[in-house]
Write a structure and sequence with these properties.
- The protein is α+β, with helices and mostly antiparallel strands.
- The protein is built from 7 helices and 17 strands.
- A hairpin with a 4-residue loop joins strand 9 and strand 10.
- The protein is elongated.
Length: about 375
């Protein structure tokens, strides 16, 4: 499912995400006090006496004592060894619901009583009041669920399972089995990060890196897409071993650099918008997806502390094309040469005006 298995020093084993936190939807509380309160007895929330489905020995011994901690399996082959194997492989198991408490469902895992938090149940009412919640849990008693082990702690007789993770795992395998590099598929933008956008492909999320969102400069993914958007994406790579799918939006757009050689010629003067000012110069957008560099040596005559002393982001400038390199996607520009040329023309015009004034004065000094 794209999760990592972590073995803690205290014997706790759990499935966590790449960032060290539980995967989305797997908000398993880690506080021991919470679990002691939840598992120390088998009471049903808001009921005064134990429910009829709980055996007398369970009522007296308590849910947490259902396993002897020895790791021995029951007659059906289920035990701590089997649980560890399922956790490591992310395989699913089908278990019967034997009861519930205020936090979720209790399931029979051989000699162990496992726990399924309500947040890990499919189609469970999120905003239900206590009575609706109890009714929803009661309806599940006696049913069988397809579950995945997401955490276990044998010394504390803690076995946590998830119905959501099991279904997600099945859908995940379906996605990886049907996708190959080069496919064009539809998906829904599920989340944005500064480095890109995640797209739900129907059971697994692929990543559109910010560099693959547009041929032009993208400062933040939210400038291109929003959560909930339905998009078509190009599949760049599918890696089942690392549980990664790389996607692209810009590969479905025409590449503007393919036409650069015919659009821009050395020596011509064009206009552009300054998009970024850095220590070595400034970038100017000539059209969508095409940016050229005005090197610091081509910004202006004389000395200045920083390129921002000459130009600012958003400024419209006239520049001369110095070189065009479509293969390496580079265009060299000069602001200095345009300004110098403009100044030279201004001086020439001024000199011409002065000469004309002298001629007028000479004519005025004539015999008339």
């Amino acid at each position: 499912m794209g999760f990592l298995s972590d073995n803690d020093d205290d014997g706790t084993v759990s499935n966590t995400g790449d960032d060290g936190f539980p995967p989305d939807g797997q908000d398993v509380p880690q506080d021991d006090g919470y679990w002691e309160a939840l598992l120390s007895d088998g009471e049903v929330a808001s009921l005064d006496e134990p429910p009829p489905w709980m055996a007398e020995d369970e009522q007296s011994a308590g849910i947490a004592a259902s396993g002897d901690g020895s790791g021995e399996a029951g007659d059906d082959g289920y035990g701590w060894g089997r649980a560890r194997s399922l956790l490591a492989s992310c395989d699913c198991c089908v278990l019967k619901v034997t009861g519930y408490n205020r936090g979720g469902l209790l399931v029979e895992f051989g000699v162990i009583t496992g726990f399924v938090p309500s947040s890990h149940l499919l189609d469970f009412p999120i905003y239900a009041d206590s009575l609706e919640r109890e009714d929803a849990l009661t309806e599940r008693v006696g049913q069988t669920l397809t579950l995945q082990v997401i955490e276990l702690d044998q010394p504390k007789d803690r076995l946590i399972l998830s119905e959501r993770a099991a279904i997600q795992g099945q859908r995940c395998e379906e996605v990886f089995s049907r996708l190959t590099a080069g496919d064009v598929v539809s998906g829904r933008v599920s989340n944005l990060r500064r480095f890109g956008a995640f797209v739900d492909l129907g059971g697994f999320e692929g990543l559109v890196h910010i560099s693959e969102m547009s041929w032009g400069r993208v400062n933040y993914p939210g400038d291109v897409v929003s959560p909930g958007d339905e998009v078509q994406v190009y599949v760049l790579d599918v890696n089942p071993a690392e549980r990664k799918i790389q996607l692209s939006l810009k590969q479905l757009q025409s590449d503007p650099w393919q036409q650069v050689a015919g659009h821009y010629h050395v020596g011509e003067i064009i206009e552009g918008d300054v998009t970024n000012v850095v220590s070595f110069g400034a970038f100017a957008r000539l059209e969508e997806g095409i940016e050229g560099l005005i090197h610091i040596s081509e910004l202006a005559e004389g000395t200045f502390l920083h390129p921002r002393n000459v130009v600012q982001e958003g400024q419209r400038v006239r520049v001369r094309v110095l070189n065009v390199d479509p293969v390496n996607r580079r265009i060299g520009l000069s602001l200095r040469q345009v300004r110098t040329n403009h100044a030279d023309h201004a001086i020439e015009d001024h000199d011409h005006d002065d000469t004309a004034n002298v001629l007028v004065e000479v004519a005025s000094d004539g015999p008339y």
